[in-house]
Every structure is written in structure tokens, then in C-alpha cells.
Design goal:
The chain is α/β, with parallel strands linked by helices and 269 residues long. It has 10 helices and 10 strands. The longest helix has 21 residues, at 76-96. It is globular, with a radius of gyration of 18 Å.
Length: 269
């Protein structure tokens, strides 16, 4: 396992500066945000080849590419457009040697139920995984948003698409953000571990009923236990800090990375 951070919190920082910061705080890997309009400075006036050159000089692995997608589309044309856009992210990942592309299944569509949208998501991910068959990349659906941010539904989605190219980007904080308890979230972690291809670490606790994000190690999750279980399942991917709390991003990310390095180094030893 390699420990690192996502680039999402450094949207106004150049790729060179982002990579330098990541290396300085002890990151071994990074998730690179793939949408220029979200992390403008990463791609601005650089292009894919420029990104490749800077990554090669950084000494960091890039464990995943953060894409944006919504396959919860009731319209065929819109679904086809989302599939085509996501395959484009996968093509970029292959060009850069990035093994995982983070995906969102989709979010709430007013007036349309999850039961109606679910087969559309299955069809969309089947189309994607068919098109990338044979490519050196896999797709990791993140537990994200309000529509399908529930462990049982996500497990069913992976099962129903039935592709070795599809797994889970496990975000430790997002189940609680969507209303699950710590205990329920940890049960869903266990259920999804066998199909996990990337891990985003958010720690936190409920304060007066409100989910509050904290640097890794300060919250109520058993992150050490989670990492041990990942190792027992044979997981060899990345574990990256994705701090989205209200404290200083750089200081909180540095604290989180140091905490995670301590756990992973101990488990791997």
C-alpha cells in the first residue's frame, strides 16, 4: 500500500507546486484531479504531455485519476454522452500510466426514483467496461452523493455490472456525510473491501448530530483496523488523504498523511 493525498484541495496551485508539497509531507502517491475546470492549475497551459513530464520528475506514483460522471441519466442520449466522456478520462489515464479512474455513479434526479435509474447506471458501466476491455485501467465507483451512497446498493451495482474492470473507490467519510452512523459505515466498509481499488480517507465524528470532518486519527473511525483489513484482503493500492474539513488544508493534510504512513508502515512491516 502507498499513502498519499488527492490534488482536489489544491485547485489554485500549479501541478509542480502540488507535487512538491505532496513529496514534502511524505506522500508516496497522489490522486490527480482529471477535470481542468475543477483543478484549473494542474492542466492549465500544460496539457497531457506536460503533466506526464512533471509526474515523471516528481518521484510520486499517481494511483488514480479523479473523473466526474453521472450515469443516472433517464435519457439515452445523455447517458451515451456520459459514457463517452468517461471513456475519455480512461484514455487519459492510460496515456499517463494511471491504473484507476474514480467514477461517480450519479446523483438524485428530481422526480425519478433510484429504482428507475439503477438499470441505467448498470447499462452505463457495462458500456464503459466493455469499451475499456484490454486497457491498463480499471474504474472505481466512489460512494458519493445522495442517490446511491449506500453500501448494499453499491455492492449490488458492482455485482450486476459483473466486470473485472469495475470496483469501488472507498471514501471513508461519505457514508456518514449521507446520514449513516459510524457503525453502519464500518459494516459497509467490510462488505466493500473485496472490491475496493482505491481508498480516500476522511475521518470525523458527529458533533451535536452534525457530521464533522477532522484530520485522520482525530475522529471516531478505526482507521488502523480498516488498513489492517485491507492488507488481509490482499489490497495493494493507494490510501490517500482527502481532507475537506474547515481547518487549514495543507496542515491537516500533512497531519493525515503522517498518521496514515505510521499505520501503513507498521502493517506492511
Amino acid at each position: 500500500m502507498l499513502v498519499g493525498m488527492t490534488s482536489l484541495g489544491m485547485g489554485r496551485t500549479s501541478l509542480r507546486e502540488t507535487l512538491a508539497f505532496a513529496a514534502q509531507i511524505g506522500c508516496q502517491t497522489i490522486e490527480l484531479n482529471g477535470r481542468p475546470t475543477v483543478h484549473q492549475a494542474v492542466w492549465q497551459d500544460v496539457g497531457v504531455e506536460g503533466v506526464r513530464a512533471q509526474l515523471a520528475n516528481s518521484g510520486l506514483k499517481v494511483g488514480s485519476l479523479g473523473s466526474y460522471s453521472s450515469l443516472a441519466q433517464p435519457d439515452d442520449e445523455l447517458l451515451e454522452a456520459q459514457v463517452a466522456e468517461f471513456v475519455g478520462y480512461c484514455r487519459t489515464a492510460c496515456t499517463l500510466g494511471i491504473p484507476v479512474v474514480r467514477a461517480f455513479a450519479g446523483d438524485v434526479v428530481p422526480g425519478v426514483s433510484l429504482e428507475a435509474l439503477y438499470p441505467r447506471m448498470v447499462a452505463g458501466f457495462r458500456a464503459i467496461t466493455t469499451q475499456i476491455d484490454g486497457w491498463a485501467v480499471c474504474v472505481g465507483i466512489e460512494n458519493h452523493g445522495r442517490l446511491i451512497n449506500q453500501g448494499d446498493w453499491l455492492s449490488s451495482l458492482i455485482h450486476d455490472v459483473a466486470s473485472p474492470r469495475l470496483g469501488i473507490t472507498l471514501d471513508t467519510g461519505n457514508f456518514c456525510w449521507a446520514g449513516a452512523s459510524i457503525e453502519q459505515a464500518e459494516r459497509w466498509f467490510e462488505k466493500l473491501l473485496p472490491v475496493t481499488v482505491s481508498v480516500h480517507v476522511k475521518d470525523g465524528r458527529f458533533v451535536d448530530g452534525e457530521w464533522t470532518l477532522l484530520p485522520a486519527g482525530r475522529g471516531d473511525f478505526d482507521l488502523a483496523g480498516l488498513i489492517k483489513r485491507l492488507a488481509q484482503c490482499g489490497y495493494t493500492g493507494q490510501v490517500v488523504s482527502e481532507y475537506e474539513g474547515t481547518d487549514d488544508f495543507e496542515a491537516s493534510t500533512a497531519e493525515s498523511v503522517a498518521y496514515l504512513r505510521g499505520i501503513v508502515d507498521g502493517v506492511c512491516a
